[in-house]
Amino acid sequence: MEDTYVGAIDQGTTGTRFMVFDHGGQVVANAYQKHEQIYPEPGWVEHDPMEIWQNTQEVVTAGLAEADLEATQLEALGITNQRETTVVWDAETGKPVHNALVWQDRRTTDRVEELQAADKVEWIRGKTGLECDAYFSATKTEWILDNAEPLKLQASRGEDVRDRAENGELLMGTIDSWLIYNLTGNHITDVSNASRTMLYNIREMEWDDELLEEFDVPEEMVPEVRPSSDEAFYGHTDPDGFLGEAVPVAGALGDQQAAMFGQTCFDKGDAKNTYGTGSFYLMNTGNEAVESDHGLLTTIGFQLSGEPVQYALEGSIFVTGAAIEWLEDVDLINNAAQTAELARSVDSTDGVYMVPAFTGLGAPHWDGRARGTIVGMTRGTRKGHIVRATLEAIAYQTRDVAEAMEADSGVETTSLRVDGGAVKNNFLCQLQSDIIQTEIARPEVDETTALGSAYAAGLAVGYWDSVDDLRENWQVDREFAPEMDASGADAMYDRWDDAVERSLNWATEE
After folding, report:
1. Distances from the Cα of 371 to the Cαs of 3, 103, 135, 361, 401, in angstroms?
2. Which of 69, 71, 451, 492 would be 245's cystine partner, CB 3.0–4.6 Å?
3. Over the stretch 361-372, which tens digit does the pLDDT of each residue have?
């Protein structure tokens, strides 16, 4: 099998990537395309699912062509995706009834506050392991069913959206389901993505009837739930379709679980942090669903065919890399690479703190009405101070989560595996090591999200024999050790709490 490979479709928040990997986990092909971010109102974020599907076909085709590969050389396809982002579509035509509501979208905050007022937070957490938050798919699906007015005009018999959903004419899913459906014609999700909907019982391992009723989501709409690495396959690509070949689609993982898998965090206590649009810190807790007392999520990590589910604790930070994009949007930097140079141009932030709560705060604060805040500025504050404060904010948010993780799990983090676009920045990696007072290990292949989904699909078809093969592939690019003394890091971090306090409950009018 010298000349066969495994492909991975990595459908992220800002774009879609297609990568091809060989037996050694090395990249053979890589193509990427951005899609439009749609902001209809403050705090609302949408994507066009048809654009995402079109881009997926284009990056797969381009990636294969640029690497001079044939679709026949793909043993399997894996999918990884932005989680929680929700699509509802017509089962017959395959057309979405509304734009996808993105995980960052806050339009259902009022509904979440109703649930909080009705004392349903613990009830939801007990079943799903999740905070009651607009982040997850349940309230998004409910909103689409209540508000997808255009469909009423298209319905042949004048039925409303909910009637059509109950008749099995509409399907819902996260982006993995949307892509699997378009690739194979089958309506399937994996356990990791199901666990992010706030409709799936992670202990009973099934869609929860009481939650489906609470959010008025007909059971006919939800996908079949399968292992993340599935020897039975989710289906095959259409040989008459854009690939021209029947390739098994055999693995799927939500992006953060995929990164954990790609970082080979297969054992209890293994932890990783991914720095993308947001940052997501996951620790494998083995076959035990560990409950959090410190604002973390209990979630499904992954499941291999014929094996029990592995759970994880997760700290979800909504905005990290997106804060660097914001610096670019407001012309403080020209590109992300400039942040290190500007941050180094000053010795400190001179007391400036930036809280990038552009879409509320996730773990461990969980305040959907928090908003972005810069405090501590003086007349002497310069661009370098704000840029440095933004990088420090990424490190502080990670420390928030790391401390909660240690408190919940009882496991002290000695080394943290990191990945994602932002970790190319050596300044940020060193800063993170200093603030968290922990060693940071950056792998050679930093696109671990795509790699994880390729691993899941490749294991399912026997391209790799076992997870031991994957462990052997993991190679360190560089390690960072703390250079700042603990007291200095603690002093900087102490004032971070004061800055966060000032960002809370700001968006009272939205």
Report:
1. 51, 16, 15, 8, 19
2. 71
3. 998 998 989 999
